[in-house]
Amino acid sequence: MTEIKGDIVVDQKTTMTTNNKVVLDGDNDKTVGEPFVENAKMSMRHVNVFYGEKQAIFDVNLDIASNQVVAMIGPSGCGKSTFLRCLNRMNDTISICRVDGKLFLEEQDINDKKMDVVPLRARVGMVFQKPNPFPKSIYDNVAYGPRIHGLADRRSDLDEIVETSLQKAGLWDEVKDRLHQPGIGLSGGQQQRLCIARTIAVSPEVILMDEPCSALDPIATAKIEELIDELSQNYTIAIVTHSMQQAARVSHRTAYFHLGKLIEVNETEKVFTNPDHSLTEAYITGRFG
Predict the structure, then answer these.
(1) Fewer Cβ neighbours under 10 Å: the N or C end of the chain?
(2) 14: Cα separation from own chain's centroid
(3) How confident is the model at residue 29 (pLDDT cuts 50, 70, 90)?
(4) Given CA atoms 41, 234, 113, 254 in this order, what sign does their dihedral have?
């Protein structure tokens, strides 16, 4: 049944203004698809995020499967990066931010205030939008985490961790002869792979990526995307991206956010070819975003 209210046409699937802007209406914001999985590495239940009195995330429920890549997509300001930062407590660094709900890493609630975030962030690593190597050598960038976490007792052990991490990040052959040169001297794409090597050097279980290719050229982006596919064999990965093409290329499942609400979660192919929700369809077909 369709009802006309002023310049807005309302039906059970979507709300469309006369200037073709889609907005959320009524009960149309409930998550559809398959947000839950059997082999969940991380499980989030009834997650709400507030910045002061302003609510940014509304009652999100989502599982992230082991050794899979989940892409989080949606318009700017939809809350996808805010939600991603919940997964290793990075929002703790924002004084006015409050996160409610349960966030489980396997059986452990990481939102428990008794949780020590230092070992948590070793288990759930983060790669940021802009490459941020330390003002140290390439070697010391990768060795930093294993040193502070006590993962290597001998120099030979540390050498092995550095080499293995750089190999996994697809960077070893490019830097093996200049390990003691500054990391900031690398190209943008190489710096981002160095940051990925630094993340995996502490043997994380989950890797979070917040638009890791947005500042990179197409060639560097292609290398990062190839790397994501390889890393998913050993790690669980959640990636936020503004590029729907990238989400389609690298992820197994896709979660679509809109105005702080999780609208749809499904296998990536389904989201981009036959989405369950009209808002998802409107976004991927370019009607807004």
Answers:
(1) N
(2) 27
(3) low
(4) negative
Say what the pTM is.
Answer: 0.89
CA–CA distance, 103 with 195 (Å, rounded to integer): 25
Residue type, 154: R
- 1 with 11: CB under 8 angstroms? yes
pLDDT tens-digit series, residues 221-254:
999 999 999 999 999 999 999 999 999 999 999 9
Amino acid at 9: V
Place of tokens 């994380």: 204
pLDDT band at 153 (very low <50, low <70, confident <90, very high): confident
Whether the CB-CB separation of 279 and 258 falls below 8 Å is answered with: yes
125 residue type, one letter: G
| pLDDT greater than 80 at residue 1 | no
Q: 3-state DSSP call for residue 220?
A: helix
Burial 41-77 (b: 16+ CB within 10 A, else e): bbbbbebebeeeeeebbbbbbbbbbeebbbbbbbeee
Question: For a pLDDT cut of 90, what percent of the chain falls above it?
Answer: 87
Name the residue type at position 177: D
The letter for the amino acid at 46 is H
Quick one: which of 282, 237, 276, 202 has its CA closest to 15?
Answer: 282
**Residue 258: helix, strand or coil by DSSP?**
strand
Q: Nearest-CA neighbor of 120 among 218, 23, 202, 233?
A: 202
Between CA 289 and CA 247 the distance in angstroms is 15
Domains and CATH numbers, the chain: 1-30 (no CATH), 32-284 (3.40.50.300)
* Residue 21 in this model has a pLDDT that exceeds 50: no
pLDDT tens for each residue of 108-140:
999 999 999 999 999 999 999 999 999 999 999
CA distances from 209 to 64, 121, 250 (A): 14, 13, 12
Going by the DSSP 8-state scheme, the letter that residue 42 receives in this structure is E
